[in-house]
Specification:
Elements: H1 3-7, H2 12-41, H3 46-53, H4 55-58, H5 64-78, H6 80-102
Helix pairs in contact: 2-3, 2-5, 5-6
Length: 103
């Protein structure tokens, strides 16, 4: 996303705050995906991890920087479990919508 689109309607300080939250959110999202894959498959699966953190997948939820910022805010305000629950809810809904399209 271009700086102009991200900054639209936001102050410079708000944009910087959003980026910082997104940076944390990206790390939380990566941790969630790795834990989920290990639980489900008991093995490392990089292709699956990449598909869940890719911007094209995040676009299914919303603008990627804003999605990651939301994850970061949840983590900072409510903790890891709350952030993981939000990610689970969002990704489950997206994957359910995508499955019929793959058939």
């Amino acid at each position: 996303m271009s700086r102009e689109n991200l900054a639209r309607g936001l102050s410079k300080r708000e944009v910087e705050g959003l980026r910082q939250e997104a940076w944390i959110g990206d790390a939380v999202l990566e941790l969630y995906v790795r834990e989920r894959i290990l639980k489900e498959e008991a093995a490392r699966n990089d292709a699956r991890r990449i598909s869940l953190v890719r911007n094209s997948f995040l676009n299914s939820i919303g603008q990627p920087t804003r999605v990651e910022a939301e994850i970061g805010r949840l983590y900072l305000q409510k903790g890891l479990a709350a952030a993981f629950q939000w990610i689970e809810t969002q990704t489950t809904a997206i994957q359910a919508r995508q499955k019929p399209a793959r058939r």
